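Bench log, entry 3. Co-assembly request; chain sequences pasted below exactly as received.
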Amino acid sequence: MKLLREFKVNFLNFVNQENAKLTLLLNLIEPRCGGVLIVGKKGTGKSTLIKAFTEIVKDVGIPIYELPMNATEEAVLGGIDIENTIKYGKRVFQKGFLSKVNGGFLIIEDINLFPLDILSVVFETQARGVNIIEREGFKLSEPSNFQILATMNPEEAEFSSHFLDRFGLCVFMDEKIDKEKKKEIIKLHCFGGEENSIDELIGKIKFWREISKKVYVPDDVKEFIAEVVLNEAVSGHRADIYLYYASKAFAAYKGETIVTEEHVKVVAPFVLNHRRRFIEPPSEEQEHSHESSNTNSDENKEKKEQKTSPIKNEDFENAKSQEIPSSEKEEIFPVGEPFKVKRLILRKDRLIRTVTGRRTKTKAKGRGGRYIRSLIQKRQEIAIDATIRASAPFQRLRGMKDSLIILDEDLRYKEKERKMSHTVIFVVDGSGSMGAQQRMTVAKGAILSLLMDCYQKRDKVSMIGFRKDKAEVVLPPTSSTELAIKKLKEIPTGGKTPLAAGLMEAYKLVKNLHFKHPEMRFLILLLTDGKVNVSLTGKPLFEEIQSICFMLRDMPATDFIVIDTEKKNSFIKMDLAFKIAEWLNARYFLIDEIKSDTLAQIVSFYKK
Amino acid sequence: MIFLFTAIVNQEEMKLALVLNVIDPSIGGVLIMGEKGTAKSTTVRALAELLPEIDVVKGCRFSCAQEGPFCSECLERIENNGNLEIEKKKMRVVELPLGVTEDRVVGTLDIEHAIKRGEKRFEPGILAEANRNFLYVDEVNLLEDHIVDLLLDSAAMGINTVEREGISFVHPARFILVGTMNPEEGELRPQLLDRFGLCVQVNSIRDKALRMEILKRKIEFDDDPEGFYKKWENKQKELAEKIIKAKERLKDVIVSEDALSAVVEITGELNLDGHRADIVMLKSARAYASFNGKKEVSVEDVKAVAPFALKHRLKRLPFEDITYEAEKLNEVIKRI
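Structure output for the full assembly:
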């Protein structure tokens, strides 16, 4: 263990991951490349690489700081220096990360796990180039030009496309590494590598930085840049600008002073990777850049094979599903029109949490959360600014000499608040009866509306479908609404109604998630017409459902909504959905009801 | 250094909506909606360069106007010596950052003054700075609810009343609210939405030549900001002067009966709630006429600004394509 800890991988003997190394160097050559987001699964060396790079940046003489996950807003922006403020009786400012990092790099590891409010503040400041501090009585502005080097593991959590766009470059860590390279990595970690001196590299970087100033971009190459970006149909104009600077940096890296189309082609994937609609594993272009950055071609072949295989699988499965003879016809209904959903207000509870999101406000635990106002009532954290203000007018009276005299009665506390998100689980009835009279189309419209609502509130969504003889998790919990919409479109209709199986699946999912994330809250949204006809255990249908409902109801931190899609004007109505709502203690809506009234009118207006 | 307003390629609607607000601040601000990376924030920040000077009470920390309303301090001045001196002050773009705390928005007790003198004095906040200036909120849809409440409160009254930490203070807080947002990230609260006089939609430019032009100008600016400023100096001056002239003429521009009925007809056709739409539309049409050196507001002027005034007030479905809705609006405008 000791050996491992002592050994530091340096940038030079870091094995493979040429793309990631290149993007980092490009940023060092030309900071206007706009930072790098390194995407990779756990254990692919993201952090190690960043750490090795940090050493180099420091040697070049550029500030580099890592933003810790637990950083508070005060620590990020800057805030009151408690010790000196009390000592001198006047507000003393303590610089935040965003001021300290001016002219350098800010490292954000696992950026997709960071609280959103902190990230909003960071990116807002970065865009402005100035850190404006308007808090706790301070009014300052400090220069804050920096680039962000971030890592994320897409398995852990999603990341908003809005934030993605702020990154100049994005690179995927190679996961496929050949055996020889693997051996090399293991050897390196166990026995240490050659003590490569990075001085030579530092010298090179300084040289590249010098020539990058002289690099010239001919007009036809500029045009080529515009074309490349236009072909990708990405939104906004950031891509053009970053591609321009990345190409320039790459030319300098190659020791050339004129940028060619070839240079542009090599760096284009880094600029465009994350601006496409989804973050996808490396595509053709990514490999293309591989070839140019001379990695061996065997590896490329291997990758291509790997890439084509999922498509084959899909085809195979499609074929399979067509083969299965279905007694009842199966249809896929289009998604109905979205409509404005009523604001869903959920039970507030008193559990103090540390999670983030936007739906339900919760009292924040620990140092996180936003400082809303000061209170006289005792809380965990003292609001220094308010305490000093409270004591200030009495200082002369109390005979203040060297430091402020603060009495118990002056103490003020911070009230903090943070919004918490939910995991919303859609349990969707896909049985044949839902297909009648376009019920599924309307239902899909309703789900779409709710999905949009979930995205804005930063909820996670999951989807369970039940039809024929079983229920399955169509969509495991994710924050990607785009993926959810895609899955929603694909939900087929046809077959019997195994409602009990659907509820049981939801129960299993919640139980599992609750175990992993005890702080998470759940919202189960059951969408059914209640025409149940398949039992899970062989017990009577209603009895079975009732007992599952009671089990679900006892789950902690779970709310329920039942949306009834049954046509209420027909002769044979069962109203089972209503009963389920009662058993679950759920809010019950008829499908037509969940739209807010005025907007429903507009829907019909537009339909004309 | 900030990029120059006149050097921003295209995005004419956004630029016009901002200029109209400089000409007539009572229009009530602009909400700029658009995709990421479409120069929303850059344009607003660049506006600062072009802003004219206004008359303010000399030495007033709240930029009170000569004709009022007045802050507590100016009222005291009037009581003590009767008249107020006037000085010129350039209008500003005051930013409201996302991480702002309540005490900095409304103002708070001046600690140092309190310690040294044992007196309570008011220390102005952002609302004070924003009085008669532009108040800019980037990502306005991400602003915390409790801060939005403060903004709505003072926007409605035009006054910031402070009662905290033993201080009582009143000062005018009439600001031109400018917000940018990416609608994908969440919607705006309806009350706040309605506070914005105008609304424009910006899209990324698909034309290759224009995209190249954007890239070229951005590079030129990055490489040599001073040189870039010199190159665009004349254009900037030209526009600044045009705005000042339009501002001076504004009160003399006549509103024809035709223009007035065009306004009423459009809002009537669209079945809108409230009167804010009518008022804003007419005011913008007048500013638009003045900007173009006209003496009278025509129906054409009304038509030109109607989309800005109405876009965010139409009853629409969330997530619905705005272009579709704009077509609807265009139809109505065409008919009149």
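Chain B touches chain A through 60 residues (CB under 8 Å). Residues 121 and 262 of chain B are 51 Å apart (CA to CA).
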